[in-house]
């Protein structure tokens, strides 16, 4: 969430920054400006009444309790107190409305985020590896997996409907192997602390990272099993939500930073509004596995921390020998909460296209303000908002897709990347295994 004081005191700069995203991002600012003016009036009125009440109280204390003047001052004090409560209630209502509007305002793009309106405007930062070459026409992963007997969409649809899958045999083993490989790499080589969070969270956690209230249609919401519960639970769309909120409403110490977590979770998304996009295969599923990287740091370190986090996600692809490129998202393509984002896009020969496999973002203090995540710079110093960052390290299903397509062989088999062979217990996936 943006700082209200920043918005009020620098309205034109904020307007220009949000306009880099799209015109719709600017629209709420007019309402905020009007509400801020009403808030100032309410505060002045409340302070004036409070001063009058205090003066009346002091005057009354000097009068004899049985005198007519005392009774007059007492009645005046009651009236002023009642009016003050009404003014304070009005002020609180205006502030609540401002907060609600602010929850729908996206983050300001970082100055280093390039201009642009769509993914077509995202500049390529660099590429890694060579585009795989084949002596045959490469197949898409849905054909490879079905032919190998490791991937089944029809049975998944029977169980759960469209956009689900069942993995069998070596497919299931590879999913498990990839999760273990990614977590081992990030914890043993990159210094992350592994965490296994709940897969169901309160709405407060989703509000803290920016999914609510704007993106509720993308979430799966559960019904209350316990009628005494006062809150709803949602299936997590990403481990970013529970892991970032581990430190909600906390004050961290400066020496604890940076904090780095790696978490495997399944993820659940309704994919509202995405119909017609990647409808076949494993690219866009309602349920998928992901290893997420989350970092907390001091504001002055966040730029370097984003580069570090992105390099950690890249290392997974490099160790697996998968050709990919890194693009920087333009202002019109970055996510709601992000200030700066790098996307890792892996090459899929069967589709003759790059597809996102990791999105690494810096959020500045946007999430920290919503979730009240602070740190104390030094002993006795006033707490400051921390900066948060996260990225996929990696999306597991999409990594499996990339392996099937980049390592496919003419006979229909798939070579297992060397880094996975000890986890898989085999060098090649053939029908039946």
Tell me the domain tally: 2
Quickly name the level 1 CATH class of the largest domain: Alpha Beta
The named CATH superfamily of the largest domain:
Bira Bifunctional Protein, Domain 2
**Major beta-sheet overview:** 8 strands, mixed
Helix content: 40-55%
Overall geometry: elongated
- Counting helices, strands and paired strands, the structural category is alpha+beta
Number of strands: 18
In the sheet with the most strands, the strands line up as 1-11-12-13-16-10-9-4
Cα end-to-end separation: 50 Å
Number of helices: 14
Overall average pLDDT = 93
Are there runs of 5+ residues with pLDDT below 50, and where?
none
CATH architecture of the largest domain: 2-Layer Sandwich
CATH topology of the largest domain: BirA Bifunctional Protein, domain 2
Radius of gyration: 27 Å
Q: Work out the strand percent.
A: 15-25%
Summarize this structure as a short list of keywords or feature phrases.
Helix Hairpins; 3-stranded antiparallel sheet; alpha+beta; 14 helices; 8-stranded mixed sheet; single chain; 18 strands; BirA Bifunctional Protein, domain 2; 433 residues
